[in-house]
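Folds abound. A case:
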Amino acid sequence: MPSSSPRTPAPSTSEPLRARRGRAVLATAAAAATALTAVGAPPAAAEKSVDVAVEWYDATARTIAAAGATTQSTNNRTWAISWIAAARAVRDTPPGVKRRAYQDAALASAVHASLVALAPTRTEDLNAALHRTLERIPDGASEDRGIAAGKRQARTVLASREGDGLDPTSVNTPFPTPEPGPGVWQPTPPSYSPGIQAGNRRARSFLLGRADRFRLGPPPALGSARYRADLAEVRAYGSIDSTVRTPRQTETATFWLGPSLTLFTEPLRVALARSEGRPAARAALVALFHVALVDTQIATSDSKYAHLRWRPVTAIRSADIDGDPTTTPDPNWTSLHNTPAHPDYPSGHTTYAGAAERVLTALVGPRTAPFPLTSPTAPGVTRTYTAWRTLAQENVDARVWSGIHSRTADTAGVDLGHRVAEHTLRNADRLFR
């Protein structure tokens, strides 16, 4: 088990530091995106009857929905590989070809070849999608060379990621349950399953390097004022029979209960569809989003399994050993939603949301026109958003109101996601050489 001592100081929460760091990352990311683009002006909007990037974004989403892995980081990996290949394939337009025909064929072929390799059961549907795209492109050297470039880049990226430890078996390698003790994670009701996703921390990242590069400092000490406040909030607001949680808060908890990848697929699509620029930069937006999310999940598992902080349900039911002798245990306390089978600190949902927020803010700006969002765990509910930051803020609250995370675990998660995403953006050029 890795040492629980922090590798880096806990991130500052000062707004001036965050603002300076955000501006620096924005400048670096903009420079990286510019470096990806081919020389020359992008195609005029009037020329584009079909947005091939969005067309193949939707094809990727359908493929993941129909044949995706059981582990979220594996599915983010599929997205990342496919769209790194796409960004590389359209990076340079060779002389003597029609730019749009070449780039459309290259992008579609790169994503198609990657997905066929990673989700072979969807080959027939993917072949049909590729046929539809290529049917719109005039036959000739531009199309042929684009197809060849897409296939070549797919092969290269796939080979570079072989054996990276992000397959479901490696991600969910068995984790031995630690001996019980104050503050130590234990399996949680109702299933009391062993810890999952511990293998993420041993996977090979895209850009992070060491899994512990941004390991969080320790969570609040048992019995400290912060710890007691966290526990009291979850106990009151996260209980299945809470008398203080409002209907709107319950809806928020339920809305953000589903898998983060599922919930963030539409916001990223909105960003892509509304983005302007050359095809390489637009493909890089999708690639960098998912690269950051793979690396964030690696960093999240590192901190979770380094600190092994127990979940609120365990703490509340065992409050006589939480360091505060005045706290009364509640052995029958039950959270609104079932607790996932891994430690509390940090929250995986909020690290994901923090990374997503930072990538979208850096590459397309902090706000967009209003867009609707639905959730598979809240049928019939539609929410409207204009700022990526709001998605992260709601994730923080949602995990507390679900009764499955402390607020400290949630806010620390957003900070960790920010830091990994900033590292991804600073090093983006390494992906597209």
Observations:
- The radius of gyration is 22 Å.
- The beta strands are 367-374, 382-387.
- Residues 198-210+223-431 form a domain with the Vanadium-containing Chloroperoxidase; domain 2 fold (CATH 1.10.606.20).
